[in-house]
Design brief:
alpha+beta, Thiol Ester Dehydrase, Chain A, five-stranded antiparallel beta sheet, 4 helices, 5 strands
Length: about 150
Amino acid sequence: MIDKRFIGMNIGSHEVQLEKGALKFFATAIGQENPVYFDEKAAEEAGYPGLPAPPSYYFSLDLLQDEPFKYLDTLGVNLNHVLHGAQDFEYFKPAFAGDTVVIKAKIIDLFDKKNGALDFIIKEVRVENTEGELLVKQIMTIIVRNPEGGA
């Protein structure tokens, strides 16, 4: 079982500038068909100052850092035993191509199930603009399989 003293641990923060090409590529990859994600004129006509970030794009921003899984080492977790359990988003304000956003992550809960066969890491990722306004809050559930534990 992962030590509960890690609850509340700040994982760190980093900045990312939202690039037009990356936003278009992501929108294509997820099958987005709304032209506001590809065409600047369509985005402008919809009242946007630029191409908006697709809603699930924010998930990828946490991975845009030198060592995105380093915190798992700190927790004593073997990356080979990790499963992505769930991802929830709460949206507050949109972000657009050219914006710089700040990604802040921390562990908000740790618990186990099946007599220790599974550990659950609940991670909160906040995406803010450079003025500190919250744009998106993500809650990620990471499941760790423990071969030595279990029911």
